């Protein structure tokens, strides 16, 4: 069977021009999974993945970020913007639109506008909310800098520390502010954990940013993973995948998607972002029993992430079934 090339178009900075994006998520070289090859910058691909592509809103004078577009947006445009010149000659039935951002109240108007605009150009349109033409979870990508083969074959790395959290100081939405308030609660109560991330406030006493999330997860038994959105059964992000692939036991605050996708016992559910949640964290991390009990379930979850939930595996299966 002839190799099918998948190009990519995204509003995430640099992805569309980065030829090797996601290549480390395949067991083979050059982004090959079975008979599918992802080459983000391919000029004449067989398929095109529009991955969190934000359609232009109105007529901006210069390129706008997602949040600049959001501030400009008041209602969807009367007709979808023309992006035909960006589609590299790929026919509609071979263009896949996957929206990745959660349906937060603050961003929901732009998500809906993206879905409407995508209907003019895309044969498959999906996102992690009920507003999408095809509601579904977002296939997995990860940000630990290790190859598929390394992650697939490695035993648990040496664990020398108790608990970490990688987050940011972003406060644009109510969910962001709730997460920061929980961080403040942990610091005020002298909870013992290592904190990493960008833009954190001075009071957070963070260790700064990481180029490779592996460095802030792999040496730890437990990892705090708090989603930006926890109100439906579809949204789940790399916060959970990164933690499990690093052989951590995630203490996870999110919606119900993880329960459908991962084996029981592979993560712990943080009950709330308040005093009750703090008490739960303190109890779990007081010893290493929970990690040792979860070790086999973590191993199983890692295989599911690598071989089934993986965006490259999803693309290969989608193309094989549909074409």
UniProtKB/TrEMBL annotation:
Domain called Fucosyltransferase C-terminal: residue spans: 157-290
Pfam families in UniProt: Glyco_transf_10
CC annotations in GO: membrane
Alphabetical UniProt keywords: Glycosyltransferase, Transferase
InterPro entries per record: Glyco_tran_10_C, Glyco_trans_10, GT10-like_C_sf
Gene Ontology MF annotations: alpha-(1->3)-fucosyltransferase activity
Similarity remark: Belongs to the glycosyltransferase 10 family.
Name of the protein: Glycosyltransferase
């Amino acid at each position: 069977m002839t190799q099918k090339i998948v190009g990519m178009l995204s509003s995430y900075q640099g992805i569309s021009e980065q030829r090797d994006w996601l290549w480390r998520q395949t067991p083979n070289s050059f982004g090959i999974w079975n008979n599918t090859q992802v080459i983000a910058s391919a000029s004449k691909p067989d398929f095109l993945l529009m991955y969190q592509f934000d359609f232009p809103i109105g007529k901006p004078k210069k390129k706008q970020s997602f949040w600049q577009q959001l501030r400009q947006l008041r209602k969807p445009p009367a007709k979808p913007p023309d992006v035909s010149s960006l589609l590299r000659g790929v026919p509609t039935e071979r263009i896949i639109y996957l929206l990745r951002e959660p349906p937060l109240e603050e961003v929901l108007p732009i998500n809906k506008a993206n879905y409407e605009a995508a209907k003019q150009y895309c044969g498959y349109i999906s996102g992690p909310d009920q507003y999408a033409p095809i509601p579904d979870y977002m296939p997995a990508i990860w940000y630990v800098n290790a190859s598929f083969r390394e992650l697939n074959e490695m035993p648990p790395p040496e664990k020398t520390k108790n608990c970490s959290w990688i987050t940011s100081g972003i406060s644009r939405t109510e969910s962001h502010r709730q997460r920061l308030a929980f961080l403040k609660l942990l610091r005020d109560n002298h909870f013992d954990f290592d904190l990493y991330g960008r833009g954190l406030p001075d009071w957070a006493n963070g260790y700064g940013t990481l180029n490779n999330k592996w460095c802030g997860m792999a040496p730890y038994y437990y990892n705090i993973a708090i989603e930006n959105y926890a109100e439906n059964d579809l949204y789940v992000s790399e916060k959970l995948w990164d933690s499990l692939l690093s052989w951590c036991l995630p203490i996870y605050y999110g919606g119900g998607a993880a329960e459908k996708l991962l084996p029981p016992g592979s993560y712990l559910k943080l009950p709330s972002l308040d005093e009750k949640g703090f008490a739960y964290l303190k109890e779990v991390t007081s010893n290493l029993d929970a990690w040792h009990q979860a070790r086999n379930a973590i191993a199983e979850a890692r295989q599911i992430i690598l071989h089934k939930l993986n965006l490259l595996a999803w693309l290969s299966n989608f193309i094989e079934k549909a074409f």
